[in-house]
Amino acid sequence: MNNRLINWFKYASPQSFYPIAGKMIPWFWALAAVFGVAGLYVGFLVAPTDAQQGEGYRIIFLHVPASWMSMFIYLVMALWAALGLAFNTRLSGMMASALAPTGALFAFLSLWTGALWGKPMWGAWWVWDARLTSELILLFLYIGFIALQSAIDDPRRADKAGAILALVGVVNIPIIYFSVKWWNTLHQGSSVSLTKSPSMAMIMLWGMLLCALACWMYSIAVALMRARSIMLERERHTEWVRALLTSTNSGKE
Amino acid sequence: MLALIRAVIGRDLRLAMRRQADIVSAMFFFIIVVSLFPLGIGPEADLLRKLAPGVLWVAALLATMLSLPRLFADDHRDGTLEQLALAPQPLGLVVLGKVIAHWLVSGLPLALLAPVLGIQFDLSTDALWVLTVSLLIGTPALSGIGAIGAALTLGVRGGGVLLSLLVLPLYIPVLIFGAGAVDATVTGLGPQAHLSLLGALTLGGVFFAPWATAAALRIALE
Amino acid sequence: MLYWNSFSEFIAMGNHGVYVWGSVGVTALLMALEPMLLIQGRKRLIARLKRQFRAEKHDSSRSKD
Q: Which member of A80, A209, B29, C38 has the greatest number of CB atoms within 10 A?
């Protein structure tokens, strides 16, 4: 038991995580490509049209996975943040800051595809629907996190301050969602909502799941790539970075 | 425990009294922002009555933001904050005292000013009452959540703008229930549900925010 | 197996082509741009660090002489 714990912390050091991440990245890219091609094939070529929404509904194969990922990444970020505060590991903070821009990207994509879906469905680019509004606030939270981290020069302090912000954010997200929903129902917005048609065909669900898996794998690959750059940058004064970059075969890494 | 909080409040209030200009300018900011809206929108009473809860509440959010950057900055500069962090008393309680003091000089005056400004928007007496009560209940949460942001951005470049970026999204539930309470009164629904949810937010904010703030302060002091 | 009868029908998306392909286009663009920027940034970082290490090595070998 004790032995396993030590091993775990060994992999949590940037020095040993850096090469492992490097080996994992191509696999996650491959998985992302496979799931992505399969999901888009099912969603855009095989799935039948939706009776109520016409062909425009196909945007959900992008919109729903992007929304899921934007929320999921914030949770993972908060988890890394909590780990970082609890165990004081360097890796946690790096992973949290590596995830934030990707989460913000998905939040933006969710809003963009939501707007393009809303226009043909509701006749408006933007509707103050509870989910869209919450997604917008989530994007603000990501931007706050990124801005805070980039404003603090000392990386250890940036990590910890970001961690507290992420945890405060994750506690607040349910409250924000609930309050926005409450606000939305009071202001007669409930007639237009994103509720899907009840008879969601099995094939559509499969397409959405495959696309979500592709986004998930993509996020892992991109976050690992960004984390590796952050590791090099922050650990540039250490021996292992020097050894890695001054050795002859360093071009591969 | 209470003595500590009371001592912190007393000290901060004395310090605030020496800088009355800060409090007064935040009040005037509130008055001017609220008075600008009718000029931008037009004087139709129906429209103004509809917009009043939102306008007054958003202006109140912005006005409380103004004094937040100074919440810890002065104590940080002269080393008091470090002394407080090293003291045996929990830092969270000190923060709670500072939050209460901040509310007394920012939230409370806003709540007392708001009904006067509400008259500009042709609000009924009931709505004016609810506006005052909602600001009284809701602004402590603003001070509490704001303290977290103030501690996180302590001594950081561009702190003021960054602070608003961090804190304003977290203010949204308070805004929704606060403005919602007034709106519910204007439209004839009762404000009770909104006010009790607002009270829950404030209780949660005032109890939990000081501990997050204390953790953020310790990080800033490292 | 395929749902579509012709390619032009697929492109038109039942008159919703602009919206569907607008979503697909921006999503694909951003999801391609992000890793490209990362690779570029990483190359620049490695080049900078290597230059720095070489300069330090150079300095230290000269100071020894």
A: A80
